[in-house]
Design a protein that fits this description.
113 residues, 3 helices
Length: 113
């Protein structure tokens, strides 16, 4: 009788231990996937950061600033003349002709009669 009680208690504790180990392993695998996603996001952010740093360096260069000032603000150096050309008007579109959708025999009848 006493052996059965000890065996029952040991069995229940062993089952609880197995359940906790399984639950912990599932929880750990979920955390692992979260960690992998975070590392991937970090890598994407680093790549974007490097791209933005290169873009910033390009935009802050004197050549770029001068080009933008000339193109968008119509500025010029001393002694230079800014020439503004008129914008080209849109090309003239031909008016579409209406094509009658009648059979050929009707067209021939109209020609002869």
């Amino acid at each position: 009788m006493r052996n059965r009680i000890i065996y029952g208690i040991t069995s229940v504790l062993f089952i609880m231990l197995i359940i906790n180990v399984v639950r912990s392993s599932v929880h750990l695998s979920e955390r692992g996937s979260i960690l992998q996603e975070a590392e991937l996001d970090l890598q994407k952010a680093k790549t974007r950061n490097e791209t933005l740093k290169r873009e910033l360096a390009r935009v802050e260069s004197p050549d770029y600033i001068e080009k933008e000032a000339r193109d968008k603000l119509n500025l010029a150096k001393e002694g230079e003349v800014v020439v503004l050309l008129p914008s080209i008007s849109p090309p003239v579109q031909p008016t579409p002709t209406i094509i009658e959708d009648i059979p050929n025999w009707e067209k021939w009848r109209r020609v002869f009669f």
